[in-house]
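Let's practice the habit of predicting before peeking. Look at the sequence and jot down your guess about where helices and strands might fall. Then scroll down.
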Amino acid sequence: MNTNEIFAALSGEVYEIQIARGDKMNALTDAMYGSLVEQLNYADNDTNTKVILLRSDNQHFSAGNDLADFLENDFNDDSNVVKFLKALARLQKPLVCAVGGAAVGIGTTMLLHCDLVFASADTKFSVPFIKLGLTPEGGSSLLLRQRCGTAKANEWLLTGKTFLAEEALNAGLVNSVEADIQSTWKTAMETAQGLARNSKEVLIETKKLLKQEYVETVIEVMKKEANVFAERLQSEEAKAAFNAFLKR
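Done guessing? Here is the structure:
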């Protein structure tokens, strides 16, 4: 179940998935998204797993899409990145996440599908789609507003600004801020292990009650976002922004 860049193992009744591409600040490739989908689906159906924990194996959570790899693959509703986001949205079991360092683009939007998020004090979040001539993805046009309020959703998505862990905490994007990445991983695992002391059925049913009313709505929003995103990828503005970024 492991690849060179995605590692997973069962720790008690917690299925821990780690993103392990530290030399690229955990920028995600199409192949990595495919592996993440496999891991999430496996954990959600594994009878020995009660809780899923997602983190990196280094100081950065994820710098977002690997743009060079991203441009080499067709983007549509069947792309691995979209399948990954849908898998997150449809997870039955609780998902705990630990973040630190860079949390860019999908490195931030995927957090909107996590049930509990713990951040290191050094985390730098951003959803800079607008700076690349692109539009929101992952259901963020809906979920960010629901979770953090219209004012913050507008500010973050329209400016693409970088914001720090304390701002994320105050806005409700994360549950707590820890001193460093090691303590963040520890808190996340302890929390996941604590959840796993409860019955699997109760965990699943509680999450269903919390999210069942809007899961399919979120999936529909994702599809609409993906359609607009795909159109924007073909724009001259986006092509110029991507080229400028890749030449840096």
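How did you do? The longest strand covers residues 6-11.
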